[in-house]
């Protein structure tokens, strides 16, 4: 596609529900990143994939957070048993090569609200 | 650890005014430095970057110089337009970390006609 696409654009969940957030990176992009952006703050790194391999998941805040990219293209970020503190915008970004140094392209994000 | 501190907003300016957004950082070694911009309703976009000391990044009339002595990367533009209204984020990444960015908190800029 023309850019990084994320869905849904908005998600409202009741506390304790599981949610799944989807990211479609730019076709052919090797690297994929997830960031979490709390209201009024800068994005914070969650996890990084190179193709289907999750090379860095050091930013995932708890074991309730899980990300996958099984075929090296589309990625899903899953949050189990959502809590109010999970409310944030979740950003996906991709870049062309596997070094992680090529220009990053960000999606518009999924705004998650946990009630 | 790595951190980025930037001036809090909002910054409100008149069109054609001079804009400065301060950014300082803490990092081991010599990181690469970036400014990203987020226009209303859009995703983050890379505005400019600098990869070593004394480098100047520039784009769309914006400039920032990598100052190792003061660990700073201040963003400047000589004459802002209404279309520059956005949130600006300073960010860094250590050399070995690729695009694993550490961002500042963002500065909202509002340019009035």
Return residue spans of chain A where pLDDT drops below 50 for at least 5 consecutive residues.
none
Computed Rg of chain B: 13 Å
| Poorly predicted runs of chain B | none
Portion of residues in helices of chain B? under 10%
Number of helices of chain A: 0
Instruction: Supply the number of helical segments of chain B.
Output: 0
Strand content of chain A: over 45%
Share of β-strand residues of chain B: over 45%
Please describe the biggest sheet of chain B, giving its number of strands, its sense, and whether it closes into a barrel: 6 strands, mixed
| Total number of beta strands of chain B | 12
Cα-atom radius of gyration of chain A: 13 Å
Give the distance, in angstroms, between the N- and C-terminal Cα atoms of chain B: 41 Å
Q: Which chains make the largest contact?
A: A-B, 27 and 19 residues
Shape of chain A: globular
Mean pLDDT metric of chain B: 93
Q: Assign an overall shape of chain B.
A: globular
The quaternary state of the protein chains shown equals heterodimer
> Which series of helices and strands of chain A comes N to C?
EEEEEEEEEEE
Task: Give me the secondary-structure topology.
The complex is a heterodimer of chains A (115) and B (113).
Chain A lengths: L4 E3 L2 E4 L5 E6 L6 E7 L6 E7 L2 E4 L8 E4 L6 E5 L8 E8 L9 E2 L3 E5 L1
Parallel strand pairs in A: 2-11
Antiparallel strand pairs in A: 1-3, 3-8, 4-5, 4-9, 5-6, 7-8, 9-10, 9-11
Chain B lengths: L2 E4 L4 E4 L4 E3 L1 E4 L5 E7 L6 E6 L5 E4 L2 E4 L9 E3 L8 E8 L8 E2 L3 E6 L1
Parallel strand pairs in B: 2-12
Antiparallel strand pairs in B: 1-4, 3-9, 5-6, 5-10, 7-8, 8-9, 10-11, 10-12
Could you describe the 3D structure shown?
The complex is a heterodimer of chains A (115) and B (113). Chain A has 115 residues and is mainly β. Chain A contains no helices and 11 strands. In chain A, the strands form 2 sheets. In chain A, strands 2, 4, 5, 6, 9, 10 and 11 form a 7-stranded mixed beta sheet that branches. In chain A, strands 1-3-8-7 form a 4-stranded antiparallel beta sheet, with no helix packed on it. Chain B has 113 residues and is mainly beta. Chain B has strands spanning 3-6, 11-14, 19-21, 23-26, 32-38, 45-50, 56-59, 62-65, 75-77, 86-93, 102-103, 107-112. In chain B, strands 2, 5, 6, 10, 11 and 12 form a 6-stranded mixed beta sheet that branches. A 4-stranded antiparallel beta sheet of chain B has the order 3-9-8-7, with no helix packed on it. In chain B, strands 1-4 form a two-stranded antiparallel sheet. The radius of gyration of chain B is 13 Å and the shape is globular. Classes of the chains: A mainly beta (115), B mainly beta (113). Chain A binds chain B through residues 3-4, 31, 33, 35, 40-45, 48, 56, 91, 93, 95, 99-109, and chain B through 4, 41-46, 89, 91, 97-106.
């Amino acid at each position: 596609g023309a850019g990084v696409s994320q869905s849904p654009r908005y998600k409202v969940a009741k506390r304790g529900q599981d949610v799944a957030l989807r990211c479609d990176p730019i076709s052919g992009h090797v690297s994929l990143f997830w960031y979490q952006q709390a209201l009024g703050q800068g994005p914070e790194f969650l996890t990084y994939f190179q193709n289907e391999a999750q090379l860095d998941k050091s930013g995932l805040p708890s074991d309730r957070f899980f990300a996958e990219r099984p075929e090296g293209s589309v990625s899903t970020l899953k949050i189990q048993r959502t809590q109010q503190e999970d409310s944030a915008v979740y950003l996906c970004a991709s870049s062309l090569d596997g070094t992680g140094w090529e220009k990053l392209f960000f999606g518009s994000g999924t705004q998650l609200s946990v009630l | 650890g790595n951190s980025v501190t930037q001036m809090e907003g909002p910054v409100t300016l008149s069109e054609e005014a001079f804009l400065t957004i301060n950014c300082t950082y803490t990092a081991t070694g010599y990181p690469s430095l970036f400014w990203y911009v987020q226009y209303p309703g859009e995703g983050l976009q890379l505005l400019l970057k600098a990869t070593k000391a004394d480098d100047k990044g520039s784009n769309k009339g914006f400039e920032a110089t990598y100052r190792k002595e003061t660990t700073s990367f201040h963003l400047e533009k000589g004459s802002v337009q209404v279309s520059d209204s956005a949130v600006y984020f300073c960010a860094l990444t250590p050399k070995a970390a690729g695009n694993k960015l550490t961002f500042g908190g963002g500065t909202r800029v509002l340019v009035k006609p």
